[in-house]
Specification:
- The chain is of the alpha+beta class.
- It folds into three domains: 75 residues, Winged helix-like DNA-binding domain superfamily/Winged helix DNA-binding domain (Arc Repressor Mutant, subunit A), CATH 1.10.10; 163 residues, Beta-Lactamase (2-Layer Sandwich), CATH 3.30.450.40; 85 residues, 2-Layer Sandwich (Enolase-like, domain 1).
- It contains twelve helices and eleven strands.
- Strands 3, 4, 8, 9, 10 and 11 form a six-stranded antiparallel beta sheet that branches.
- Helix 2 packs across helix 3.
Length: 344
């Protein structure tokens, strides 16, 4: 419930702006002086005390100013933060950089990570797009040695899976090629999880081959997130709250351990719309490693075809307006590039 007065909302916003700028607790007199408020210092002090009682501010000790709590940041992001865009000239410059390399998707990821780190002054995270649902385009079976066969499976988005496996019986290359062609014709355009349904429609000779392939085909659709591109580690290390602190080491440990990072990225944006921005403050009770951090994430890509994730991680004292606007813009730009690449 929105239980703050307009004056309390204004003062909470100013405290967050000041704390973001200085990393120091904010006092009532400094607010009055810096923002030329038409309020007495005593009135501001009383309002800050009320915000502290409501859990939006904290006071390290009685003689100090106040700093935002996690709930204070959450209220600010969800209720008070106005949507802003990157400056038009900045957007044009970034767009030009991307369209100069529009046919090199790896360079998109590296450039996106660099741009996000620069614009947000935080650590950037960008995953390469991968098919949301692996859809079969083409299958090849190549005899290698004895009963060993190399499976090459091409998906509609261009993703390729290769796996060597052993058949129970020996097949000639001609038989393997015929089986691959039959499976391709019957299964082309189907999600790989559904390929079992084509079994009745292919020659019984090839059904045994399909039965052997299915476990590996299904496993290929459960592969982890694609490569993660990062930039801007020095941005976070330069922040006073992270200088040589255990909090910084915990946050970097999460970034370095792939299973933890995959969990964070997948759980944070699962079910969210492409382009929608998701903000995690203090780990939201799920990630202890992020208790002094905030992370801004968004999905990008072509819904139902290929999507990735991008975002920035920094101190809870980050500039949310700048970070959210950068993540939103890059999400839209990469979505356009991925969609145009699929169309090509």
């Amino acid at each position: 419930m929105d239980n703050l007065t307009d004056r309390q909302k204004m003062l909470l916003t100013l405290v967050i702006h000041e704390f973001t700028r200085t990393a120091m607790p904010v006092g009532s007199q400094s607010l009055v002086d810096h923002y030329h408020l038409d309020l007495s210092s005593a009135t501001v002090r009383n309002e800050l005390a009320a915000l502290e009682d409501m859990g939006y501010l904290r006071q390290p000790h009685t003689s100090a100013g106040r700093s935002p709590t996690e709930d204070g940041y959450r209220y600010f992001v969800s209720q008070l933060l106005q949507q802003t865009d990157l400056p038009a000239e900045t957007r044009r410059t970034i767009s030009h950089q991307f369209y100069q390399m529009r046919n090199d998707s790896d360079q998109w990821m590296r450039l996106a990570a660099s741009v996000l780190a620069n614009q947000s002054r935080a650590v950037s995270l960008v995953t390469a797009p991968r098919p949301e649902n692996a859809i079969l385009k083409h299958l090849e079976l190549i005899s290698t040695r004895g009963r060993q066969v190399l499976m090459v499976m091409v998906m509609t988005g261009g993703e390729v899976h290769q796996k060597i496996f052993s058949l129970n019986d020996a097949f000639s290359q001609e038989q393997l090629s015929s089986a691959a062609e039959a499976i391709t014709q019957a299964g082309q355009g189907l999600e790989v999880d559904s390929l079992k349904s084509i079994r009745p429609f292919i020659d019984p000779t090839y059904q045994a081959i399909l039965d052997t392939l299915l476990p590996d085909i299904n496993q290929s659709n459960q592969s982890p997130l694609s490569e993660v591109f990062m930039d801007g580690m020095t941005n976070v290390l330069a922040e006073p709250e992270f200088s040589g602190s255990e909090d910084a080491r915990r946050a970097f440990r999460l970034l370095e351990e792939r299973s933890m990072l995959d969990d964070l990225l997948s759980r944070s944006v699962i079910g969210s719309a492409v382009g929608g921005v998701h903000v995690i403050i203090g780990g939201d009770g799920a990630w202890e490693e992020l208790r002094q951090c905030s992370i801004v994430l968004a999905r990008y890509g072509a819904p139902g075809q290929a999507t990735g994730t991008l975002g920035v991680l920094g101190p809870m004292r980050m500039s949310y307006a700048r970070s959210i606007s950068a993540v939103r813009f890059l999400s839209g730009l990469l979505s356009e590039l991925v969609s145009s690449g699929l169309a090509d």
